[in-house]
UniProtKB/TrEMBL annotation:
It holds the Pfam family Cu-oxidase_3. It comes from the Bacteria. This is Multicopper oxidase family protein. Gene3D superfamilies: Cupredoxins - blue copper proteins. GO terms for molecular function: copper ion binding; oxidoreductase activity. InterPro entries: Cu-oxidase-like_N (IPR011707), Cu-oxidase_2nd (IPR001117), Cu-oxidase_C (IPR011706), Cu-oxidase_fam (IPR045087), Cu_oxidase_Cu_BS (IPR002355), Cupredoxin (IPR008972). SUPFAM superfamilies: Cupredoxins (SSF49503). It comes from Streptomyces malaysiensis. Residues 1-24 form the signal peptide. Residues 61-175, 204-290, 359-467 form the Plastocyanin-like domain. Keywords: Metal-binding, Oxidoreductase, Signal.
């Protein structure tokens, strides 16, 4: 069953490969799932929900043999699940997580997209939590935190890609979107549509020698082609989230349109509809879907190329939508939505150029000509100022640009003005292209990072340290 929109209450990779490898011999590459029979009903992840302003929970990281797309496979898990529990809370809440690590050599936790302190014991991604250690994460979120869909995952450098690909990724929901919806849409069914892919090695989810363009099994909430039910005319909220390590999704729901009400955890100021949505690595969209005439259709990802030096992602079927049952009276969709967030008229403290590049072999990646060094500050910005960055991509493949701690406004792409109707924390930088963003630093000081969210690229150097100072 869907939940309700209103609240229901520097180590070599070899070390990780050795620690996580299965005892089974490698099997041949799996076939890509293209057209498969409709699966079981979609299962939304279990939820850990805040009460009276506090979410207190225990997250245990370990390698277990668990259900992955209907088969028992070795995977990296949070709380013994390949699709782990959703963390759900409200703006202004406190979250206390007792984080128990049982995998080698180390890991950590990033609450992706959330506006929260980058200092320990909050969202400090520069720490390593060794095997057998427990770390006590403590977060206090501002009342102004935006409602929407976020996610959590390993950010352990330089092994974030194998850990996320191995299973260490889950959803975060910040409640409150309902206040922007018309009254008729405040109690609708919502579904998590977490896009998570895996490759197979023997009886395990692969965590070594990851090739971005290799055949992969694409799942929704860890299920292969689950069935989603809707009534004709019924409106549902779908939380679309790309929580994979590296790959892109170009989503289409045949015969339907997505009405976008939020992106990357930020509600839009004006809703808009799209036939397709590009979810570059780590992107999220909150959308409304209205049930059509009785029948079935497919949620699919369309073929997509990230450029001559990038990857060619094939079409794949993700889920089956079945419209059936007693029709529901149609409801007018909202147009204006949340208050606008516009940085375009703010005075600028400075302008910067941030260059993404890579070597010819595609094995080393750089920001402003340098590979990541956690002990070096690459950019320094002042609290309560706004900056304009021109992000230049000199490579022949696209990159998924991401900032921690503060969202940004995408102003233009290749010189063409962009009107996204919200701030965001992910933007796709075209091959041999450029984009302009504006970012305002509010509330929090400390060392944070910006990087490409294609995690193979991040692990290979495409990350920089940003120090926010008073």
């Amino acid at each position: 069953m869907g939940s309700r929109l209103t609240r229901r209450a520097a180590v070599p990779l070899l070390a990780l490969a050795t620690a996580l490898s299965s005892c089974s011999a490698p099997s041949p590459k799996p076939a890509v799932h293209r057209e498969v029979a409709p699966g079981a009903r979609l299962k939304d992840p279990p939820e850990l929900v805040s009460h009276n302003g506090l979410l207190r929970a225990r997250l245990v990281v370990q390698r277990r043999k668990v259900d992955v797309a209907g088969r028992k496979r070795w995977a990296l898990t949070y709380n013994d699940r390949y699709m782990p529990p959703t963390l759900r809370f409200r703006p202004g809440d406190k979250v206390e997580l007792d984080f128990v690590n049982r995998v080698r050599p180390y890991t950590n936790l990033h609450v992706h997209g959330l506006h929260v302190s980058p200092k320990a014991p909050a969202d400090d991604v520069l720490i390593h939590i060794g095997a057998g250690k427990t770390y006590h994460y403590r977060y206090r979120f501002p009342q102004a935190l935006k409602p929407g869909t976020y996610w959590y995952h390993s950010h352990a450098h330089p092994i974030s890609a194998p850990q996320v690909a191995g299973g260490l990724a889950g959803i975060i929901v910040v409640d409150g979107l309902e206040r922007y919806l018309p009254s008729a849409l405040r109690h609708i069914t919502e579904h998590t549509i977490a896009l998570k892919d895996f490759q197979v090695q023997g009886d395990a989810v692969k965590t070594e020698g990851l090739k971005i363009g290799a055949p992969t099994h694409r799942t929704v909430n860890g299920q292969l082609n689950p069935t989603i039910h809707i009534r004709p005319g019924e409106v549902q909220l779908w939380r679309l989230a790309n929580i994979s390590a590296n790959i892109y999704y170009k989503l289409r729901l045949r015969g339907y349109r997505f009405r976008v009400i939020g992106r990357d955890g930020f509600p839009v100021d004006r809703t808009f509809t799209r036939d397709t949505l590009l979810l570059a690595a780590a992107t999220r969209f909150d959308v409304l879907v209205t049930g059509g005439r009785p029948g079935r259709t497919v949620l699919e990802t369309l073929p997509y190329s990230t450029g001559p030096a990038g990857n060619q992602f094939p079409r794949a079927k993700l889920a089956t939508l079945v419209s059936s049952g007693k029709p529901v009276a149609r409801v007018a969709m909202p147009t204006t939505f949340a208050p606008p967030e516009d940085l375009s008229h703010l005075p600028l403290a400075r302008r910067r150029t941030v260059v993404f590049s890579e070597n010819k072999a595609g094995t080393e990646f750089y920001i402003n000509g340098r590979q990541f060094d956690p002990h070096r500050v690459d950019l320094r910005s002042k609290l309560n100022t706004t900056e304009e960055w021109t992000v230049v991509n000199t490579s022949n493949e696209e990159h998924s640009f991401h900032t921690h701690t503060n969202h940004f406004q995408l102003m233009s792409v290749n010189g063409v003005p962009h009107h996204g109707h919200s701030l965001q924390d992910i933007a796709n930088v075209p091959a041999k292209g450029r984009m302009v963003i504006r970012i305002r630093f509010t509330n929090y000081t400390g060392k944070t990072v910006l990087h490409c969210h294609i995690l193979n690229h991040e692990d290979a150097g495409m990350m920089a340290v940003l120090d926010i100072v008073k």
